[in-house]
Fold each of these.
Amino acid sequence: MEEIDLNRPDLYINRELSLLAFHRRVLAQAKDTSKPLLERLRFLCIASSNLDEFYEVRVAGLKEQVQFGSVQSGADNLSPQEILNRISVAAHDFVDEQYRLLNNEIIPSLEKENIYFLKRDQWNDAQNGWIRDFFNNELLPILSPIGLDPAHPFPRILNKSLNFIVSLKGKDAFGRDINMAVVQAPRALPRLIEIPADIAQHPQDFVFLSSIIHAHVADLFPGMEVLGCYQFRLTRNSDLFVDEEEVDDLLRALEGELPGRRYGDSVRLEVADNCPEKIVNYLLKKFELGQKELFQVNGPVNLGRLIAIPDMLDRPELKYPSFTPGLPANVGRNLFSTIREGDILLHHPFQSFTPVIDFVRQAAADPQVLAIKQTLYRTGPDSVLVDALVDAAKAGKEVTVVVELRARFDEEANIRLANRLQEAGAHVVYGVVGFKTHAKIMMIIRREGKKLRRYVHLGTGNYHAKTARIYTDYGLFTCDEDIGEDVHKIFMQLTSLGRSAKMRKMLQAPFTLHSGMIERIAREAENATQGKPAHIIVKVNALTEEAIIRALYRASIAGVKIELIVRGICCLRPGVAGISENIHVRSVVGRFLEHTRCFYFHNNGNPEVFCASADWMDRNLLKRVEECFPIENPVLKARVIEQGLKLYLADNTQAWVLDSEGSYNWLKPVEGETPISAQQTLLLSLAEKS
């Protein structure tokens, strides 16, 4: 039998184009009229913010490759320039769809609910007067219009800030001819301002900050004629570069790099669609961009800032129903005694994150607790969990925290919390040079009688109380001795930088997780070859790692049934005859961001189930410190299989199925079929109230 070439480029979907396809699935939620109106608006804003980050990081990286003459291609064999060309076409279509949706569907629907964004020609006399006062009192004192001449060159434009290019006629106070000026909107001010109720035309009237500046921009240039005023926004490369091998203090090096993020290389220009071509070309030249990086939009240049609206409005009928996260029946007041009785598995956001916080709070107050060790990747600026760690350190506990300073876009917050923890007396380390610490692990060491017992929390998501309300994640509490020993070894690696020690039950990146997954995939393939039942179910956020993909292809060829639930990027191409026809891929996109990473291997009737902090990506498996932990309790194992995996495979309302052409198709119930939403089912079964 001729060996199949599993390196063929047509077997791999491009990573960046797959990520754009995910953003389009998010945008599709905003088009779904069955969703509450303000949630549709929220999805529109999330899709816009996703595209921002895509340009700041992914497109910026590709442009750098082109700039340095790189022709390196991935498994799909596309060059960086070819990928950029395809991204440009897809992204322009994406943005056009965003604004069509905003202008033709969302805004008219909001108006039917008496929520209006008033344009300048809709302001009545009372509103004009109030807006004039707002401009004079709130804007005029802090605006700094910059006329462009040899003494006033084009100003540095902050990344993603709102700006206006103003066309002028006449002479300034010094008799100079000024044809052009730039006005930069203050970042501290909201982009939407609510009109006071006593002068509003409707129950809720808003005006855009950009409309106020447009209306009164002439006041910034007395004695001159304003010929035109056009909003624009520049997106810049926001990746940070720190040569970790050359710096002695990573924290100080990152502190020095952070300000530069605001002024990285230009990657995208958004400008009002009524801006004259001459001015557009002027801006493109200034920012060294071409037509492919230009987006001319019919509306506010930053849709992401509209996400403030749902929180500004007390309209519960236009939002998802609120709910109270539940708690497992076996969670008692004293977590240590509860964990000794048996493992606890929390499924956020359907179940509460509070026990995780209480775990540290109880440890801080417990005289029997000697030490607390924890990793922190993202926690948020005002973290109650960090508050608890500070209290523990002040109470005299031995507190060791591994803070990942390089968590993208959270670097500044993590530097602040690291300093705060150190001031409280905690030991703070910054992980390992060259390997981000992405593991979500916590260990509390407690004296019980004549011995020490380790209590452990392991998670698939960050220790972040806010995202625990909107991301789906698993968290396991256990005092299993083998897992406690494994977690102890991981902390020893992170703090002492000693050699990797053999794990008893857990898998760990960058050492055993990659090979451990490939071995288990190969075992299923061998079982299938021998005529035994073989089945793999995987739920991850992304699948890009080529060796894993090839292993899955080999398993499929051997006859293994493979079901993949991949929320975002998937570079594997399912349904290819003779290669991946036994592989099925779906993505579930709904109210909550799917974030759990779970792995099921049939193992000839003795199933193995793991949860992990890691996706099946090159960076997670080979370039990060990650944890992967077994679910061994039979009841909890069955819960993960039934609720965390099979329920998502049964979803026929929020699932998108990936076909062999690389396209996603939204799955809908056929006539007579019961609609199933995995997230809604979990809400009803696990939350206290929905």
Amino acid sequence: METPSSAAEPMLWSGWGDPAKARELPSSVRKLLRDLLGVTDPESAAASFGEVRLPISALPAPVMTRLSTLVGDEHVRCDEDARIRHTRGKSTPDLLRMRAGDGDDAPDAVVLPGSHSEILDLLKLCAEHRVAVVPFGGGTSVVGGLVASRGNFTGVIALDLARLNRVLSVDKVSMIAEFEPGLRAPQAEQILARHDLTLGHFPQSYEYATLGGFAAARSSGQASAGYGRFDDMVVGLTVATPRGTLEFGRAPKSAAGPDLRQVILGSEGAFGVITALQLRVRTAPRSKVYEGWRFESFAAGQVAMRRIAQEGPLPTVLRLADETESMIGLSRPAELGTLAEAGCLMITGFEGSEDDVAHRREAVAALLSELGGTYRGTEPGERWEEGRYSAPYLRDSLLAAGATVETLETAGFWSDLPRLYDAVRLALRATLDDPLVMCHVSHVYATGASLYFTVVAAQDEDPLAQWEHAKRAVNKAIVLTGGTISHHHGVGRDHRTAYASEIGDLGVEILRAIKGRLDPYGILNPGVLIP
């Protein structure tokens, strides 16, 4: 067993990531926002940590006593710091509420178990006393995935998995490693590097998200073209439920009935708590090259992406920004406000052995050149790599400046993608006052791709209601145009209605039946995922 060399740092309670990286927008960008979108400074300052309003803890004293007996007094926390830091996730509505000092959704206690058996006992206890349990990894959900519906429950606890942060085994013959769920992605990569290995999973939440969270939300990383989605990496799972233990995965592939791993992957803690994961690993790359290409239009760039996805070879990273995102330069947040040339920026990245990287670069370059792409060298790609995790910090800065800014994503087949792209943009423009709407293709497949949108608008007098109105319209547009309601953010609470439309009445019945069998008292993340 191997553990991280250092403890994971907590995220900023009212924003993203490291508080030291938060910064105000320069005056030039504020002027651009004012002139372009009518953004003005907020009328009141954001609440300080000490101004957050918390409800009185509702957990009965006997439950608190038994929780302490199960995991130890020091691992049951009811202090304001712990409760505030486990309130909601990191969506724009989540942050707007926290910035307003609204801590109404705070858990009554934060519990940090240290083993699978402790979690089993804890779930039995909470089922007995009707206490809702919200599994908590990195806290990076952006779809309302960490807010329990209290209903008739006697209380709510956040089940923080931070103590389950070990690499349990590394099998270099089978290229499989077994991890505990609370290990953050950078910690996992540090330990794997000692074995000359990597997972290759680098989503925008990489710095703070956990491996268990990746599985529970069906995460997809920025290098998915080369390494695959996270659910592609999962070969085995151990899960604690109120009914007992589930263990899946004893061979690479199997014809022994339906693959029940798929029931847990994407289940967002509603069916059980992942306590161990067996994951496919790769040899750490010897060579990395990131490059930029320019296309005349978003449509032309998508044609090139489709050809690469269908004919190969694939780069490790393949992304394409539309005209607006390319012009604004969202791929380089530190330089926001410096308008780029017209056209669309494509990022191609290659990781692997030197020979493999050289071969794929040459083949991809030949195809992109044939299809109208103009090579822009390595500088755009290196700049993207340097700032690949910076966008959430920019979102915080824009919120502080008085802008409503949020991201949303979907996916569809190649033939449906133009209509899906237009429908989402139209929905945003119809519901927000003259917004700036940007988009990029972030993940590609032989049959289709994902679309990732960023929207910026001036905040009105009720920015929460403003965004909720827009979000409902976008969800409806995605359903009507045949896209999926989420490619990699998950369902949470924000997408439940649209998810029900996507899977149909019978699909909803199946989900509810699984929930009823594994969690008969409904204590696991109530209100999340299940329509």
Amino acid sequence: MTHPLKTKLVSMLEVVYPSLDCDYLAGQLLETMGLPPDQPLPPAHQNNWDESDVVLITYADTVQKEGEKPLVTLHQFLEDCLADTVSSVHILPFFPFSSDDGFAVMDYLAVNESHGDWEDIEAIGKDFKLMADLVINHMSSRSRWFENFKKRVDPGKDYFFEGNPKDDLSAVVRPRTSPLLNAVQTEDGERHVWCTFSEDQVDLNFANPQVLIEFAGIIRKYLEHGVIIFRLDAVAFLWKEPGTPSIHLQQTHELIKILRLLIEHHSPEAVIITETNVPNRENLTYFGNANEAHVIYNFSLPPLLINTLITGDCRHLKTWLMSMPPAQMGTTYLNFIASHDGIGMRPTDGLLSEEEKQRLINTMDSFGGKVSYRRTADGRDQPYEVNIALYDALKGTAESGADHWQLQRFICAHTVMLALEGIPAFYIHSLLATENDLERVEHTGRLRSINRSQWQLDALEEELENPLSHHSKVFHELNRLIAIRRKQPAFHPNATQFTLHLGLQVFGFWRQSMRRDQSVFCIHNISDEVQQIALSDINLIGTDHWLDLISGMKIDDLSGSITLKPYQSVWLTNRE
């Protein structure tokens, strides 16, 4: 008797492990996941999201209260302030770790005791869709697996990827300037382990199928603890081969398909998101044929939108938007402008000229930002990301520097993001309009710390209750805009989107609901000058009644025009 699930899994495994008994390996994976081989296939092209979905990105300990576990404090803050605002919460790595603020995991199956425990994680997962990191490319050099690697015993003996210093590794794509190979003393003598990101983050060896089986077990545990959205961290680097770029290799894409197959058969409502901070065309490949990632990060959006708002020129943002393919049903984009990392510069390759990139970097530098670098194949160091708090990134323009439009410019950026095709994701420090934390950078010695502040709950509550505080103004306005967005069928992540042509200083696009009963024309003045827009240029249907969802303004004369103040946005709709 043939079983569709097992047959499909075997065919995928044969691409990655052609010399192994893939029928046996498939059986091991299904058993580890608790899946019978005759498990029915889940519905194809199922959208596990709608217009009400909004993601919050936060560390477990971003909000703290003395004498209380941070996960408990976070849950209380979510319940008190964001229960009607966000649907999903991405808690950045909450496991025991040795460096990189959680991304050098020591134990995948434990919660960092200083944050709380699995019960605290599960409690949040009962009230919100819970998103967690599967830090799948590398593991801490202080983990038990790596200690076993050095002792040459299992589990761990062959779990980490080894390289040879004599190999030609010049083609390998690097996101850092640190050495790729690091020498390690083991019971068998010196070995060289592959470290894409840092000496403390040792790359795992998926050429050993036992590593894949281990991760199947980890995924099952996460699902049992309430995780429903999996962020595959740094997944583009998963498979390595000396003599190649060791990024985006076929085996990597096939492994993502395997993980998706296992996850969605266990929990059909589960979602995989790939984190691939690379040029736009490369990033899009992670949709596969709607059989890899359900969702991909829109990595080009942050630098392009910031560039648009500091230059008052939307040509590059508009060109990019027109070139983006509509996501197939069952897939969509994750739109964000800020995250725990910096503003990636690689996603601007082919979109901004070198001169424009440098102007962006120089402007961010003048607003207090820092620049991280990566090492290219020819040994040069190139800007990899700009580290800066988003509120400070938008404090002025490239031409004039800091000005008095910071708050309006910041709100405009998020109004654009909220309306675009895809699911919007807010880094907690954007919702709170947190500024550059230069003191934290000095304390940790890490540039990314500039945007990883921690709030004491009482101080945060005081700021949010103060109507004169910019934190309060931003928080309440973004909450208001999110509440509007969540009620509009035209803002479904898969609803139709077309780019409008309204000049260089006005960025606009049209969204239409999947039932075609609602249109929203999203129009944004991305400059510091007043803009006049003729309604005839927007082509509003004359038999419909139109109003602005943001201000409540009704449009009575379609032959007239609308006036937009600097950085003002309107969402014109034919359905209240």
Amino acid sequence: MKHNRTFLAIVLLAFSFSNYGNSQKKSDVIKPNVIIFYADDLGWQDVELNDLDEPCAWDTPNIKALAKDAINFTNGYSPAPTCAPSRAALLSGLHPAKTGITNVSGGGIPKAQRSEKYMSPYFPEGLMPDHFTIAEALKMNGYRTGHVGKWHAGHLQIQKSTNQGFDFAHESRGAHQGPKGAKNRLNAFATHDKNDAYRLSEEKYFPFTKESPEGISYPTDAVTENALKFIENNKEEPFFLYLAHWMVHYPIHSKNRELLDYYCDKLGVELPEVDTEWTKEGQNNPYFGAMVTTLDWSLGRVVDLLKKTDDPRNPGKKLYETTYIIFSSDNGGAETRRAEVMSDNAPLDKGKKYSEEGGIRVPMLISGPNIPKGETKDVLINQLDYYPTVLSLTNSKIPAKYSSDLDGLDISGVLLNNQNNVKDNNGKPREDLWWHYPYGGETKNQSAIRSGDYKLYKNFITGNYVLHRLYKDGKRHDLEEKFDIAKEEPEITKALSKKLEKYLKDYDAKLPYKEPSKFKNDTDVAAIPVIVNDTFDAASRKVAIQLEKGNSNIVESYALVKISDKAKARKKGKKSKIKSTYIRIPVDAGKNNLEYTFTVPKEAIEYGIILIDENRFMVKSEFHKVK
């Protein structure tokens, strides 16, 4: 359990060691188990659940089978259009704008990309010890906790999954590991050789074809095997398993030659003799199809184990009857990477890294004790809802200071009581969901809000609002988001923009900033703040910044300090890279906003200050190494 300390104090203390609501009766199950099966970059149209216009080309028999025992949420959303912020949000229960983790690869000094005039705001690299994860919450309530697969929520020792509430962790890529050296997608297939790290299974699985009527073998996947191992080893106690697959993220490949051949036959395509990028549009990439079906196979292995294993804590029941399974993806489908065409989110617009429907609407199934079987619901659900819902389903309690800060809602009423709306603690139905992604060029850099039938965007580069009506009278209307009706519906645009602006303000959402060198003809550039003095007192570790008089006013200021893991003993002949990141710390501003001071923590190895003026220009001091 974490203590009530300031963010920085907890971080620095951790470095020194180096390394809800009222519950109702949910069922007669004693402490149900929970599994979150989290795919990577799996689109809403990449599974056989939500077929619109054209049926999904990829075979997902185990996902279809789970759907018969689950509720399929057709309006299920990820917290963000990219990986790291969605994972951090799911684990912490906090909106990406609240944690500040709004994109991948954070913890760096803000800078503008070569082709962009605006620079992204600073955002943290991952979760820190002051975040109270769902694993810590369940561990507090007697659960064994395990994480298998992709973490991507911080790479420092203090950010590791085992320092964030997980008793067990296995974080290799498994069968997703791409070819190395001279290997490529056409010569790196698994074999039956006992020395093959990805040795093909003796057991046979889908697909069943004329050539292989008994089914085909699958390569050994360490992610799947360690998930099964965790379940077997912890079935005597209630367990929580966060199974976060690396599939179907790039690189797009398969070690399963039989499965790849199956998809070539199904799609009517041939593999090239030379390994080149797949450029045929639509759902036509056999490598990607093989990855989707391999992901589905992994889910099937987990479900099969649950179905055949007795629950020692609930006599007469199998683990499948006493386990809640949540299946979803971290963001919408990634349609392309460079020239490679992976899949197709149509009819949804765009994909990963975009706040349009293709980037955030995801497949979502929830099954378990007392949940109706084979139902479909169109109620708005966000993965932020998982945390408070799991607490409710497991009758788990956490300190009020954590539960009151959660941004999702308990959806157990929808799951168990056939309610048609998600309600907050005051019984008020949910009205909207919102997203924040202040990155990239004009087509990506925006926030969005979904309210009923409507979806509104605010573009941070142009300042414009765009409005789409996705549904009308319960039926699909403009799901493709082709028609901007902001001018036709000024009242709706005004109402939703007001809501969105309030969210941005209440969450102190960080926005993109102007890079002075990219605005040389802007009259405001001449007035940007100028640092005339930058001193560091080694004894007190205090930094003092002095600005030139007569320039634009500062509206935001903070310092960035670099922290790192402690150096480890190195094996002879081997180098080990020390991992580090920048964290944000507050500064004290003088009365005239011309003087700024802060104290560099003793564990920090570098520091600098960031200043934002009233015209949204970002000014950065030099970054100094601490001697």
